[in-house]
Amino acid sequence: MFAKRLLTAAILLPVFAGALLFLPRLAWALFLLPGLAIASLEWAGLARHGRRARYAYAAIVSLSALALLYVPALSRLELWPYVLSVCFWVVIAPLWLSAHWSVRNALVRGVVGWIVLVPMWLALVRLQETPWTLLVVLSIVWIADTAAYLAGKRWGRRKLAPATSPGKSWEGVLGAGAAVGLYYVVLWMTAPAGSPLLDAWYGLLIFVAVFVLSIVGDLFESLMKRQAGVKDSGQLLPGHGGLLDRIDGLTSTLPLAALALYYR
Fold first, then answer.
1. How far apart are CA 142 and CA 176, in angstroms?
2. Model pTM score
């Protein structure tokens, strides 16, 4: 399974990084749009929507995201999806996880899916203006996820959230924290000055917040899958499952990064 994960990442990451670094903004937004549509379909599946409703939902999510970027009257509101997302991930999602809420109302699940997906997509588009900074933020999530997986496999004993995601452990969290801390130190010592990510305590605070929220995003998607009775959100990516399974840590972190880095 881990070999499949590495192979899939080795194929997709160069394509993603090349698009991030070289595409103009409109082309980058359109490059990301199919991913938003696929993730919306997967979310609608977890919400147990019917087949037609899933495609309608994906269309609504995708078109609303484009409208927030390119319709002048709506683009002025772009800041507020980030604020809404951060409030959800900092306040609502932890409460949801601790109480194990099971929301069956289709409209509520649809709204939650919009909050989970659209601000993330907007942040990916917006933060392309500083591509290397975006890559650093993405790398924090990827490093944390990989280190948690490896440390948990090797030393995992105490379950982090056994009722939500039995495979995750506190040892995995500690391993991920150590890897992210080492990454910050290496960047702080080697990267040129000027990035807010390396701005003493401000940068360290962003690293910590991204690390913690990536765990919340991972656990929240795990709870959605458990309540839907499925192991993966889909079968799109060999060794990874669905697209949601790979971007769960990004849904909870990128809107915060956009607020902290672009609107500071």
1. 10
2. 0.92
